[in-house]
Amino acid sequence: MIKEIKQIAKLLKKAKKIALFTHINPDCDALGSTFGLYYALKQLNKKVDIYSKDPFTAVEKVLFDESVIKKTLCRTKEYDLFVACDVPSYFRLGEYEKTFHENQNFVVVDHHQNAGLKGLHNYIDPARSSCCELMLDIIKMLKVKITKEIASCLYVGLSSDTTSFVNSNTNSKSFQTASQLINYGADVCALNETLYHTRTRKSIDFKKYLWNNFKIKGDCAYCVMPYEELSRLKGKKSDCDGYSTSLISIQGVNYSFSIVEEKTGYFSVSMRSKIGYDVRSKAELLGGGGHLCAAGVKFKAKDMEDAKNKVLAVIKKEN
Length: 319
Known about the structure:
The chain is of the alpha/beta class.
């Protein structure tokens, strides 16, 4: 691993123009690792840009500077190095998949089980709880000052992906990294206030929908959000991101999932499981992937009933 970290740091130092990317519908770990690297590279006087076409959530807008993001297609000839943060596959790059197929001069930093996206050098470790942990290792190797801004970005991603250090992916390295980031200046109280203790009326409406509409079948809890309901609540997929995490906390439930119909016939599935139960293999059967206890997939289906039955079928089959 040390060899790969050194090679990636060497490429970053050598490159003059660098483009950063993360996965579609980025979460706080994706944004935290990307922004952390962005601010580190700025110290080295690099021309660096972040590309993402997806809008930020209300919480992400508080934590990260969305004005930095380029939402256009990437003019690849303008850059001499490309970096994928928190991305395991070409598919998860969304509209920027073509950029990576056409340019081999890229590196990958990720903590997912890799699904085909590999570049010149890759720092990939599924044993780590967040991509931000890996990014801290790389930033240290760049020999730049780890500012409060960088530390805050990385802490947000680490805390978010472990849900404040309670998820099954949390380990001793998670706490060691958190301790380092606090020492570098991350304001934990303020960040936690934004991440976990800020509620909008809209978020309350979506929580109300969850607890009024969830179902349990066997040891699996689930909630579905049809497009009509999503429109009625004036929301989007990101407003439902915590559904599967909330449902897995129910006593006696070993699997949970939520399905959001983002537009007619297109479904986004978030899946969770308790320790000792593998939800990644189930997501893979549907064409998705992720971690053992947290995974997801997007697919087309005739209607919500069809989509729901597809997910229930793989859970029943694997059990």
